[in-house]
Amino acid sequence: MHSQITKELLPIYGPTEASIIAEMVLEKLTGQNSMTQRHLKAENLSSQQQLQLEEYLQQLLNHRPIQYVLNEAWFQNMPFFVDERVLIPRPETEELVEWVVQEEKNQAGITLLDIGSGSGCIPISLAKKLPKATIHSCDISPDALTVAQKNAATLNALVQWHQLDFLNPNHWRLLPAPDIIISNPPYIPASGAKEMSKHVADYEPGIALFVPDDNALVFYQAIADFCVHHGQPGARIYVEIHKDMARNVCDCFEKAGLTTIEVRRDMQGLERMVKARKKSA
Q1: Contact assessment for residue 226 and residue 181, using Cβ atoms and an 8 Å cutoff
Q2: Is 80:73 a contact under the CB 8 Å cutoff?
Q3: What is the CATH number of domain 86-277?
Q4: What stretches of the chain adopt beta strand conformation (E)?
Q5: Are 164 and 145 in contact, with CB atoms under 8 Å apart?
Q6: What are residue 74's DSSP bridge partners?
Q7: Where along the chain do its domains lie?
Q8: Which tens digit of pLDDT belongs to each residue from 52-90?
Q9: Which DSSP helix (H) or strand (E) runs through 279?
Q10: By CB distance 3.0 to 4.6 Å, which of 13, 256, 264, 269 could disulfide with 224?
């Protein structure tokens, strides 16, 4: 059964990815892990499961991401509901969350603001890992916040949600004065869409991915200005960045008056995260 599904997916996905997707599909359908599902045969599936499998395969062969097909993406060892309303959580964003936890776990009574809620994977994970912190998250998309709130309820995480346009400084007064700001903002220049794979460009929300070609740092500039004018003294910023933008983001933060700027590489050795600090006085 596994090999049959893998074979059907090969025209779109490479052998390794097709095999992984086949495992995910069978686990969703049957609850069996990769060790036991290898012995599954088509006749072991109920008629309902066979119909569901055909529907899954049809969507996958139309390049729909497996996470949207199954309405599930794992992040920080938790299952998040996802669909086209939100970005699919990525492993490098897990590393950003781990960096915050590592640096801030001993801080009590802090207020943390996540900018760009999406599925809620960042603020929900931090609510679970930093239970003494007060967690806020904002997004411009009411649809994304609906998904994030659904995940918070399912995963029993306390997050205060805000629907607003963070790029409008008039909306900043609706947010708390945070000790920590974390964000995985849109940062891909719009012209980059044509170079992306179909399963990203055709399905994931452009509002969560793309920024104008002539203003790729628009969110980082806004985050820096918000921190300087509304953050607590000594407030820390943690952001995910494009692998080629570390120098630009650091310059942006430095010009805004932030200090102690640090770049961190991800597991692939790419410069994907930046931390900065507001002056204490």
Answers
A1: yes
A2: yes
A3: 3.40.50.150
A4: 73-75, 78-80, 111-115, 134-139, 160-163, 180-183, 188-189, 210-211, 236-240, 259-265, 271-277
A5: no
A6: 79
A7: 2-62, 86-277
A8: 889 999 999 999 999 999 999 999 999 999 999 999 999
A9: none
A10: 256
Look up residue 78 and give its two tokens. 């938790």
Taking only Cα atoms into account, the Rg of the chain, rounded to an integer number of angstroms, comes to 20
Q: Are 278 and 235 in contact (CB under 8 A)?
A: yes
Cα(123)–Cα(113) distance, integer angstroms: 8
Residue with tokens 């801080």, as numbered in its chain: 107
Structure tokens at 171: 């909306």
Locate 269 and state its tokens. 């050795």
In the numeric block, which tokens belong to residue 168?
Answer: 């409008």
Residue type, 170: N
Neighbouring C-alpha atoms within 13 Å toward the C-beta of 27: 12
| 98 token code pair | 């781990």
Tokens linked to 38: 């290898």
Confirm whether pTM is higher than 0.70: yes
